[in-house]
Amino acid sequence: MCRLLGVVSRVPRPLTDTLSDLLDPFTALSHEHADGWGLAARTGREHTVLRGIDPAHASPAYRAALETVAGTALLHLRMASPGLRIEPGNTHPFTAGALSFAHNGFFSPGNALDDLIAPELLAGASGDTDSERFFLRVLTRLRGEDPDPVDALVHTAQDITARAEFASLNCVLLTESALYAYSQEDPESEVSQRRGPEFFRMYYRLGPDDAVVASSGMAPEGHREIGKARESRGARGTWETLPYGRVLEIRHSDLRASVHAVSTG
């Protein structure tokens, strides 16, 4: 049960510039989502990953990380699932080569995918979270039957829904060519029932200079909370809902965005 924020910028800039209207409200969420933070950033072939296990709002390292110059970036605030340790190996984003991945939600049992993950990938897991297993199954598919990230994300979601109970499978994947965001929730889960129908929603904003994807809970400067005001718009673009079971793809090269209509089966 975490929070996600991703951006693709036409020109690499410090995140404090690209996300100037969102960083304060996003960081404020770390008073609740206080079990660590992570950043993955790309500019060309340069790939930077930074993490901490302290609350983002109280972390000098997090504030310094926000000065990173990036063309594409992913930020994650962690709220650890019960029983999972707060340690670097369990802190998002998870990475493999040029890929970075972060998840907002959980599924149980956490080892439901283990026999579907390439043995060498499972043996190299950095921690014990269900979220990392999600990524390792996506990575297994990318290296095998599903080289297209859209297919890999959707088919991994199908694997999870067939084998486990889940609250949300919302996630963001960064590759060398694009940012991908996937949205799926079980509205009957205990968390969804308790937190309400907007807790696991994801939204995106397409502007002339950048494109942003975000989980709920933020109130950008000058606007009502994302998800509670469809009229939330401005010079940077209008917020739209990413429908459940869809994959948003934003290309690094030209900011071209596509919402892929797929079935989660």
From TrEMBL:
Residues 2-265 form the Glutamine amidotransferase type-2 domain. Keywords: Glutamine amidotransferase. Pfam families: GATase_4. It comes from the Bacteria. PROSITE patterns: GATASE_TYPE_2. Coiled coil: none annotated. This is Class II glutamine amidotransferase. It comes from Nocardia callitridis. The lineage of its organism: Bacteria, Bacillati, Actinomycetota, Actinomycetes, Mycobacteriales.
